[in-house]
Amino acid sequence: MNAELDTPVLDDHMHLDPVRGRGVEAAGEFADNGGTHLLVVNKPSWQLLDRLPSEAADFREVFDLTVDVVERATAELPGRAWPVLGVHPGLVSQLVDDGYDADEARDLMQTGLSTAAEYVADGPALALKSGRPHYDVSDAVWAASNDVMRHGFDLASETGCAIQLHAEGSEDFTEVAEWAEDRGLAPERVVKHYSGSRLDGITKSVISHKDELELAIKEDEPFMMETDYIDDPDRPGAVLGVKTVPRRVRWLRKEGYDEAIRRAHVETPAAVYGIDTEKTLE
Fold first, then answer.
1. Domain limits at 82?
2. CA–CA dist 129, 143 (Å, integer)
3. For the whole model, what pTM was predicted?
């Protein structure tokens, strides 16, 4: 158990860049400030490798780098880290700009997700990551993106895992929840990363601003906390710094939100991912 806070402290969505970022050093700083567990989402290939993918092997290279840095990060934590692997929805625009049509981009992104699902089925990865653009796109790109996301739901259902979504800022994801349920995936195992305090249909991973957290607690629904730390040397501390979640947990403890702390760092992770953040502490 975290001796200082007497609770696990999980950041539900963080990036570690082993190529040009701080990588394991960032995980160590998280631990030094009271953090215990991390869900580490792979960065897209155009950021990690400076090139776009064209086949499954390109996705595999990114996933292998992520699995390796997560293993090394776990050694720095009193708990552990898990990889979350998948395809950033912004890839569709990168591919279309590079000459692909929307259907070709969809097919390649689905290949990437299918490759990520192999890492879940074989053990090193905990969950998948998909979504759809949070910016305006053509009808063809929007349709292709929804096809990619639904493919992610199929894979999550088949492998028995959760899936994180990068998506638009809407508070209504009931249609998305229905798509998941139609594919045998419980909607509570679909997580909207970078969520605000209110969200209908799926589970929210709340960006850890104090006002959003207070509102999320008042909603009295399952939620988790994240920084979306991007580990970019050109943007240090973006989106939020690695110390943020431990600091927010201290603040929540001071404000008397003990029940909410347990919900965000023990109960919701167990329900969504099937992980035990208490038993995985030293």
1. 10-273
2. 18
3. 0.97
